[in-house]
Amino acid sequence: MVSSQIPFPDKLDSKKPEEWKRWIEGFECYRIAAGLDAKEEKVQINTLVYAMGRNANEIFKSFQLTEEDQVYETAKQRFETHFVGRTNVIFERARFNKRVQGAQESVIDFIESLFTLAETCQFGTLKEELIRDRIVVGIRNAVLSQKLMQDDTLTLDKAVPSKQSLQSITKSLKEMAKMGKLTAFETKREDRQKIKEKYPKILKIRKIPRDLPEECPAIDATSRKCKNRDHYASECKSKVVLSVDDERQDGNSDVDCYFLGEVEDNESQKKWSVDLSLGKTQMRFKIDTGADVTVIPEGSYLQTGINNLQKSSRQLFGPGQSKLSVKGVIKGNLKTGNTKDSTQEIYVVENLKEPLLGRPAIDALNLVQKVDTIHSDDNRRIEQKVKTMYPICLKVWESSASS
């Protein structure tokens, strides 16, 4: 028999009614190919129920069809009502609206998937427009997406004229995108190779001399790392860590600005640090007596468990006047091991290397003593003895010093 040579479609999972549309389309192909459509109605119905798999017979019995209703199309329609009627429209539309082209998925497969998902969304007359919109925003190719968005007369038929033309468009746009990337970098690559051959030491020096020819791509370039000129950030050798200085910005700006100075990264220099409790965590701060604010990295803030992060009206600037990303400011209670504590404004800064303890917190926690003049009992005794033994000499010296 012909039917025995054609395998059944996969079983239908009755717990996933959204799969019904796809499954019944596959079964219809099997029904025609196997010649089942020419068989008696009961044979077709029983084959349908058997092919569906587990629970299908119980579902069919619940229809309670009469002898007159024992027709394949009637049974199929009852199954349709059973599965599609249970579809959660909100859920189906959410699945449709979240659908994007997969990393290994072709554009054609993605579009066909959208058509399938739309079947259970009950979009009505908006169906074609919503599929069109989902194609535009869901495709992975940014060039193709941009091209479609620029067409204000775009329809579904224009977006998907045919599989063949879609494949051709996609291929052309991929080539265009590839050529665009090559064009953007080809000149730099050629210039770099030319200069490398003509000036072999150019890539080994930190800062390109100003007397090099204008063909050098780094001439007048500004390093994003140190903000100095005539070299790229990739060739920059600057090593700096951040210290915070409270230096108000000159001008008419209404925003307070804190500028961050530069300190050379000398590993041999021992850093002053102190362990403090902040929120739910213990944190090691670098003591920075030149800083007028206390700052912590974003990652350290997340460990504190403090949730009162507020937007800051102040700005922090790093080396070379580069603006830092201030996530916000918190009111935090800093506590030492000897139970001294102080509530301070603490700024949360993205990509900060380590927590820095500013001068207000240092003073409040009495971590560093301020000493203006050093005196000792021995010094005082010697001074008094000199005054007693040599009063005349001392007067002469004082008078000469004052003159």
TrEMBL record:
The keyword Iron-sulfur is annotated on this UniProt entry: no
Domain of life: Eukaryota
UniProt source species: Acropora cervicornis (Staghorn coral)
NADP recorded as keyword: no
Protein name: Peptidase A2 domain-containing protein
PANTHER family linked to this entry: ANK_REP_REGION DOMAIN-CONTAINING PROTEIN-RELATED, RETROTRANSPOSON GAG DOMAIN-CONTAINING PROTEIN
One GO biological process term: proteolysis
Stretches assigned to the Peptidase A2 domain: 283-361
Keywords for this protein: Hydrolase
Single GO term (MF): aspartic-type endopeptidase activity
